[in-house]
């Protein structure tokens, strides 16, 4: 393949819009048949400006998808015990179908303990160990939203995964680790790289599929992308810069996600879709 | 390195014996201080000869380690619901500190449902999703026994893991997947290979550490071992044959586990050690 090739862009905006429309249709259908509006409770601790912006975006998108959005704002001084109690109480509230804890929470909070207070059937953000197990073992359950969105993008563009070498750069609990498990479940050969990997470039050069999920601007050099590879950039750094050097990578890749407009919009779309799915499941046969 | 080199053997028998002795010491100490003997309940469904043999071996080893062994034998016709009930009841029994469900259980039983009926604090075999999450996220909890045994062997022989490329061949829920997560937690770059991997030999040739965990005799050719690599063979096939072609591999590797006498004995040793640890934890401050 020549260097003058330009990769096809994986349009997350368009796919996300379609998913939100389908989700809205399902929400309307549930409301019509059972008289219940799907409800997502969002818990925000403190007033970190980025978190406040994300929460506002998610709530606006809920409105578009016909999902009721309940905001629980807690002060920055909230303790782990108080947050756990709030999440347990939402887990037991029959009027709430999905729960999102906006994270990261402050460093004084045990984030894992908070996540685990979310009932698995309401864990539409896919952050609990139960959801990670479901993703890892192919059991019923919700995906972490960004990994789930990445898988939908790969499917939308008919990317063959079986036997392909997927290199995941990053190993966070809600992005790198679960996306690797989802790729493995689809029969990819999966390599996890991270900050301690000795020769990242050499590993990336062998990847049929690269998933960059580390949050370091342009860490992946375009020159290291194997010609014809599929590049998923889940990084989102200041100045709309991804983890991949986009301009060079697109001259070598076959498919690539832009930043913004690639993985980003998919995250919220999956959150909404899973909220409506959770509602259906919780309502039982009547909800389907 | 020349081909006439012979790898140092990783002696799982000797290390396992030492762990069992240490475990016995701890069990005696608990009995002396609190008057409680650590108790492992083993649940056996049916009379599969291999399972019966394993259970007998484990019970004999319990006796050596000062652990009381309670055997619950269920007929082959046991249903999932009945097995779940048995495991839940053992989970609530204060006289039982660890629970082992001998597996595989029959094909008519939902093995995952059975595993999940084991309380995480008694899951000394490390089979629950909760234990997998602990291994994956570096949280307190029990390791799957074979992966836990592999990590102890690697540490015993001072194998550096950080930044090393570990190739795990196999992706089962209790061996391949968790050992990869444990290696990742120790900063190895981890690749999961399996039956759908396109070019297994090429991937193995790049491995600093190979973990073979797939149960196919001599699947890994010795010629594909990188000179100086560390080879962990968790395969155990008829005729005492591992997943690695031992005779050739040992001329190239730096360290290698024999079959038998490598990984095998470690599995039971970790089971016993974790049973006594579980007892300490359940007894609270008095148990330490």
TrEMBL record, chains A, B:
Q: What is this protein called?
A: Bifunctional protein FolD
Which residues participate in NADP(+) binding?
Answer: 170-172
**Could you provide one GO biological process annotation from this protein's UniProt record?**
L-histidine biosynthetic process
Q: Which GO terms describe its molecular function?
A: methenyltetrahydrofolate cyclohydrolase activity; methylenetetrahydrofolate dehydrogenase (NADP+) activity
Quaternary structure, per UniProt, is:
Homodimer.
Q: Which organism is it from?
A: Streptomyces chartreusis
* Sequence ranges assigned to domain Tetrahydrofolate dehydrogenase/cyclohydrolase NAD(P)-binding in this UniProt record: 144-280
Q: Which residues form the Tetrahydrofolate dehydrogenase/cyclohydrolase catalytic domain?
A: 10-125
Q: Which InterPro entries match?
A: Aminoacid_DH-like_N_sf (IPR046346), NAD(P)-bd_dom_sf (IPR036291), THF_DH/CycHdrlase (IPR000672), THF_DH/CycHdrlase_cat_dom (IPR020630), THF_DH/CycHdrlase_CS (IPR020867), THF_DH/CycHdrlase_NAD-bd_dom (IPR020631)
């Amino acid at each position: 393949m020549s260097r003058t090739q330009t990769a096809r862009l994986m349009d997350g905006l368009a796919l996300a819009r379609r998913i939100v429309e389908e989700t809205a249709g399902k929400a309307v259908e549930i409301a019509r048949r059972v008289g219940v509006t799907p409800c997502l409770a969002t818990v925000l601790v403190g007033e970190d400006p980025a978190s406040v912006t994300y929460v506002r975006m998610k709530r606006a998108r809920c409105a578009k998808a016909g999902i009721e959005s309940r905001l629980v704002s807690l002060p920055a001084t909230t303790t782990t015990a108080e947050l756990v109690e709030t999440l347990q109480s939402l887990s037991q509230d029959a009027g709430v179908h999905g729960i999102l804890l906006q994270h990261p929470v402050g460093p004084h909070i045990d984030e894992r303990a908070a996540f685990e207070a979310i009932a698995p059937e309401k864990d539409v953000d896919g952050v609990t160990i139960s959801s990670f197990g479901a993703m890892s073992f192919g059991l019923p359950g919700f995906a972490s939203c960004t990994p789930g969105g990445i898988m939908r993008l790969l499917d939308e563009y008919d990317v063959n995964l079986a036997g392909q070498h997927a290199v995941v750069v990053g190993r966070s609990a809600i992005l790198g680790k679960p996306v690797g498990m989802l790729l493995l479940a689809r029969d990819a050969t999966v390599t996890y790289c991270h900050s301690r990997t000795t020769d990242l470039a050499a590993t990336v050069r062998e990847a049929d599929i690269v998933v960059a999920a580390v949050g370091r601007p342009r860490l992946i050099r375009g020159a290291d992308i194997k010609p014809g590879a599929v590049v998923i950039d889940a990084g989102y750094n200041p100045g709309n810069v991804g983890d991949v050097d986009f301009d060079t990578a697109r001259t070598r890749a076959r498919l690539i996600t832009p930043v913004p407009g690639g993985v980003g919009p998919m995250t919220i779309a999956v959150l909404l879709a899973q909220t409506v799915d959770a509602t259906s499941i919780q309502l039982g046969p009547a909800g389907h």
